[in-house]
Amino acid sequence: MAYSTAKVSLMCSTIEGQGPQLWSVINSDSIATMMGAGYISDATKIGMRVGDLVFLSSGTFNTAVYPSSGASTAAVGEGADFTDTPPVRAVMQVGSIASGAATLTENLQIGAAATAKVGFHGATPIVQPAVLAAITTTQPTATVFGFTTTAQFNNLIAAVNQLIANQKSYGLMATA
Fold it and tell me: pTM of the full predicted structure?
């Protein structure tokens, strides 16, 4: 399906013109297509600006909600937008506008400081874990697997275990 202004919604406007606006774009086009140069062809006309945030939703439209012709057979809110469970979603930023058309970028930061708490997949949000010490080893002359001491091997195991613990604490790796 081609881009259509009918599938764009301004979700949150700015206060006195300051800060980014929040938009929603739903379409059956892929996220990669929606991120293409100038995809939102009427950005200036609808009031988009560089720096605005855009939630993209891509999937197979529910034809009861979005029929190919005629009126919808479902009232607003009675049916899901997509038949995919769940549809593909992404958060983008308006990176540039040229000739009235917006190009989206993935310039999004989560946790702007080491003290910001972040969690994924239902994990309790935590601050950034402490830095791991670098593992150093020297070129061995007669060793097994490149380690000249047992301590070097144990340091490697400890570092790998800490990486696993960090992944689990963020919810990026299952705990069981």
Answer: 0.60
